Amino acid sequence: MQHEHFHIGMRTIKSVISAYLCFVVDYLRGGVGMPFYGAIAALITIQKDMPSSFKTGMNRMIATLNGSIFAAVYLFIEQNFLYLENPLIRYAILSLLMIPVIYFSLLIKQPASTFLSCVVFFSVTINHADGPLEFIITRLTDTGIGVIIALFVNWSLFKVQDLYNSLKAR
Questions:
Q1: Strand, coil or helix: what is 105?
Q2: Tens digit of pLDDT for each residue in 41-89?
Q3: What is the pLDDT of residues 120-152, one digit of tens each?
Q4: If we measure between CA atoms, which residue out of 46, 61, 59 comes closest to residue 158?
């Protein structure tokens, strides 16, 4: 039986560093955020190269903003004008509201953000309906922190890797 050599690649290293830094930033902020969302954004943002990372990070931010806005509008309407006693009716409405969430993603030419927009929409409307505005602001902030950290780590380690490769080539 042949054992394959275990290799930890740069993308794994960048992901570990980025996730850790999201937790450190939350700690330095006094633990007021939700570093889980920052770490997820960082993991999603880390890609094989900077252009791909930037594009993925922007898709993540657009998706979070899109899903959050639709969720906030729906929850405002629900809490002020709708009186839904049957949860199945509420779930039917939420499911149908994926149509405008998806349509808007396509309208702004961001099809890659469609899935995550729906995830954020459901996350806010189903899990955080009691305090949605605070959750939305915190989630947007932590997602932005995760994207920025991932882009910085990605850029920094690309520079270190380029330096290493140039020294190795000499």
A1: helix
A2: 999 999 988 999 999 999 999 999 999 999 999 999 998 998 888 999 9
A3: 999 999 988 677 888 899 999 999 999 999 999
A4: 46
Locus of tokens 């910085």: 152
pTM (2 decimals)? 0.85
What DSSP state is assigned to residue 49?
S
d(CA 62, CA 137): 14
Domain ranges (residues) in the chain: 10-157
By the 8 A CB rule, do 62 and 109 touch?
Answer: no
Q: How many CA atoms lie within 13 A of 104 on its CB side?
A: 18
Cα atoms found within 13 Å of the Cα of residue 147, Cβ hemisphere only: 19
Question: What's at 106, amino acid-wise?
Answer: L
